[in-house]
Amino acid sequence: MTHEEHHAAKTLGIGKAIAVLTSGGDAQGMNAAVRAVVRVGIFTGARVFFVHEGYQGLVDGGDHIREATWESVSMMLQLGGTVIGSARCKDFREREGRLRAAHNLVKRGITNLCVIGGDGSLTGADTFRSEWSDLLSDLQKAGKITAEEATKSSYLNIVGLVGSIDNDFCGTDMTIGTDSALHRIIEIVDAITTTAQSHQRTFVLEVMGRHCGYLALVTSLSCGADWVFIPECPPDDDWEEHLCRRLSETRTRGSRLNIIIVAEGAIDKNGKPITSEDIKNLVVKRLGYDTRVTVLGHVQRGGTPSAFDRILGSRMGVEAVMALLEGTPDTPACVVSLSGNQAVRLPLMECVQVTKDVTKAMNDRKFDEAMKLRGRSFMNNWEVYKLLAHVRPPVTKAPGSTHTVAVMNVGAPAAGMNAAVRSTVRIGLIQGNRVLVVHDGFEGLAKGQIEEAGWSYVGGWTGQGGSKLGTKRTLPKKSFEQISANITKFNIQGLVIIGGFEAYTGGLELMEGRKQFDELCIPFVVIPATVSNNVPGSDFSVGADTALNTICTTCDRIKQSAAGTKRRVFIIETMGGYCGYLATMAGLAAGADAAYIFEEPFTIRDLQANVEHLVQKMKTTVKRGLVLRNEKCNENYTTDFIFNLYSEEGKGIFDSRKNVLGHMQQGGSPTPFDRNFATKMGAKAMNWMSGKIKESYRNGRIFANTPDSGCVLGMRKRALVFQPVTELKDQTDFEHRIPKEQWWLKLRPILKILAKYEIDLDTSEHAHLEHISRKRSGETSI
After folding, report:
1. What structural domains does the chain harbor?
2. Has 342 been labeled as part of a binding site?
3. Which residues are involved in binding ATP (predicted)?
4. Catalytic status, residue 166
C-alpha cells in the first residue's frame, strides 16, 4: 500500500454501504468486531448498517436493518454474546429467502456484507454471493427493482470473520470467542480443584466441542489433567485399563485428586461415543474412587470477553472493512484471520473446504489426517500433552546418560512462571535427567539455595500465580566466583532461566563471564516471563496476558462507574517500565480515548488535543473518558501532571479522577494463554537443552562456548525460535530496557481510529490474500 493509498483510506468508503451481521452460535468478542466494523466503516466515509437477528433479519428486512452511528456501538466492547442478536435461519437456506434478502440489500444500496459466525454461516454467505447476479435478474423481471438499481448493485462483496468458541475453523489460529471460553472453563476447573483436593475426588469435566477437541486439549494442558478425550484422536482399544492405571499412579505419587477432561464429541476408535457418565461409571466400578461429573454447557459461551478476544475482534473488524472496500468483482470472498500475531486474508471457500475435510477424515476414521488438517498449533498442543501426561518417568538411569539441569526464576514475579517451571522439571525428568531448582534467582545460585526436584515437587503448579521458587532482580556478574563454585559443587550442566529483562541481561553477563570462568561454559536458555513484555527476541512473554486481563477488568469497572456519574474522565497508570505494551493493548481492549507511551513521544500540544477531543466527546451521548498512561512514558508529564492538566482544562465540562494500578498487575492466577504458552515454552526449552548438553560433551565434561549455547527462546510472528543472546544485543535499547523494534506499535493507529481521531491509516498493518496450504508448511508454531 503506497502513501497515496493510505490517505485514500479516509475516503475509501465514500458512496459505499456495509452491512454487518452475527450468525450461528454466539461467541464472546463478536461485539468488539461489530464495534470495529462500524467505527472503521464510518471513518472511511461509508454508511454502516446493523442487521439484527442474523440472516433472519436479512430476509425479513424492515426494522431489522438499521443504520449504525458512532455512538450506537459505545460500551459494547466489554459485553459478551452479540448485541445485535443471532438466530438460526431456515428461510435463508431456501432460494426464496435469499431472494428477499437480496431485495432488502439492493433497496438500501448495500453491496458489502460482513458476516461474523461459524463455518455454516460463512458457507451460506458464499452461496449468496455466487447467486447474486441471478437473484438480481429475477428481482428485475418481477419488477421489484429497477434496471438502475440492478446496475448499481451489480456485485456483492463478502468478508467473513470467524466467531466460534470451538476454534474449529481451519486456516485461523484462533477464532473469536475461543480464548474467552477457555477463561470460563479454567475458572471452573480452578474452583473444582480446591474441592476435589479436600475430598480426594476424581472429577470428570465435559466441555463443548462436538467435532473439535481444541477446548478440551488446551484445558487439559492448562490444568495438568490426567487424561483428555478428544474426537480427533480416539484412545487405544485398551484405554480403560490404561486410564485406571494412570489415575492410580497419580494417587500413589501423592496427588489428592484426578481430573479428566472430555470433549462432548469424544469417540473411541470405532466411532462409538465416550460420554462423561461412561467414564465416571468405569472409575467407580474399577477403582472405587469418589467420582463426580460436571458438564459445563452454556457457561462457556457466556461472560465478558477476554482481553485477547477484544483485541482479536477489533483487529479483525478493521481488516474486514479494508478487505470489503478494496474488493472487486474478481476477488474471492475472503475470511480475515490471525496467524501467529499477524492478520491474514484467506479465501473463504478454501477454509470451509479444509474444515469439511477434517469432518470427512474423522467420519472415515482417518484420525491422523484429521489431526494434520487441524494445523500445527493443534498438533503441538497434542504432542506436549502426550509428553506430560502419558510418559512414565524412567526408574533406572543408564550411567553417563543422566545430565543435571537447573531451573530458576529471575526478575519480578509474573503469572505463568510456575507453569513454565513445572513443564521444564517434568520434561527433564521424563528425559532421564536430574533436575535442580534454584531459589531466589542468581542470588540463590550464588548462595547455594539449590535442591533436587522430583515429579510431585511441581504438582498443581500450573494454575498458581507469582513465583513459587522466589525471584530476584540481582544480576550474576558480581558473584561469578560463588556461582562457579556451586555449578561445580552441584554438577550443573545446563541452566533454564525463566524471567524478564534481567534474565536476558543476566544471560549476556554469563556469556561475558565464560572468558574468565570455565564453569560458566554450560548451555543456558532464557524463557521470557514478565508482565512488561519487554524481552528482546520474543513478541510475547509469559505473564503479559494475565496482566492485560487484570488491567482490562479494572478498566471495565472504572468505565461502569464513570458511566453512572457522567462527565467524568479517568486517568489510569499501568506498569511496564518504559515498554508501552500493556498501556497500548489495554487501551485497545478497554476502549480508551488515549494511551500515552514512551515509544511514541508526545508533547504538550498532543495533551491539549486529547483534552479538546474529550471536551467534544462530552457533547455526545457518551459522557465519559478513559486515558491510560504507561508509568515511565515521560519523566515530566507524570500521572499527577496529566491529572492536574485535565482537571484544569476540563473545569465545568468534566471532572477527572486518577488511578495507579500498581502491583496488582503482577499477581493473580495465570490466564489460559499464559499457562499454555509457559507449558509449551518449558517443554521446548528442555528438549533443546538435552540436545545442547549432548553436543557440548567433551572428555567426560560439558564445555559449551559457542554463541548458540546461550539463547532466548521467543515467539516470533508464527514460530518459536532460539536466538543467541549475543545476537540480540544490537536489537536492544539497554538504557530503557526495551527491544528497538516492537510489533504491537503498528496496532496504535487502530486504537486512535476507534477512539474517533482523524488520522491516516499510515502505519496500520495490511494483510494480503494468502492460501491455506502455504501457511501449513514452515516452522513450528506454538
Report:
1. 17-175+305-360 (3.40.50.450), 178-300 (3.40.50.460), 391-542+670-739 (3.40.50.450), 544-666 (3.40.50.460)
2. no
3. 25, 88-89, 118-121
4. yes
